Amino acid sequence: YLLDPNHIALEVAARVRAKKLVIISSENGNLQTMLEERRQFTTLDIKNWLAKDVVQNRMTANQLNALVQACERGVERCHLLDSSIDGILLGEILTSGGMGMMITNHSFQTVRPAQISDVHMIAEILKKPVHETAVLPKTFHYLEENIENFIVFSIDSEVIGCCELVTYQ
Q1: What tens digit of pLDDT does each residue of 65-78 get?
Q2: Which residues pair with 158 in a beta bridge?
Q3: 39-57 per-residue burial string, b: 16 or more CB within 10 A, e: under 16
Q4: What would the pLDDT profile of 102-117 be if each residue is shown by its tens digit?
């Protein structure tokens, strides 16, 4: 009886409450064409692909299914990497966009209305442009009083960008 390595990886990652699970494979079928537009997917995206038989390679479908199950069982991020690409693991780890496919339960990049708890990060973000005179200075009091006018961009719940929307009449 042979054990499926994808199932073993999924079980180990889920049971040790791993933050990441990475599968590196040479059997990726049409994965590269699927990654031309984007590299980050939710478990729902992948389930829809699998249901529509978009994934032509059976091994890749099994790997994606294992990664989806791992996410659903608590692994924060799962990655599928193509071993035929030189330096793929380092490229995935060291570049902001990654080089393979990342699967999460929910999108880890969000644009949302700012909250009072974001004021300190917004102030930090606005410091540099104020120094370069690209933005008018904003006090903490101003930010707190006008927080409903701000929208933030966050990655992993960390605010990395913001904008203020002001209506002029």
Answers
A1: 999 999 999 998 89
A2: 155
A3: ebbbbeebeebbeeeebee
A4: 888 876 777 889 999 9
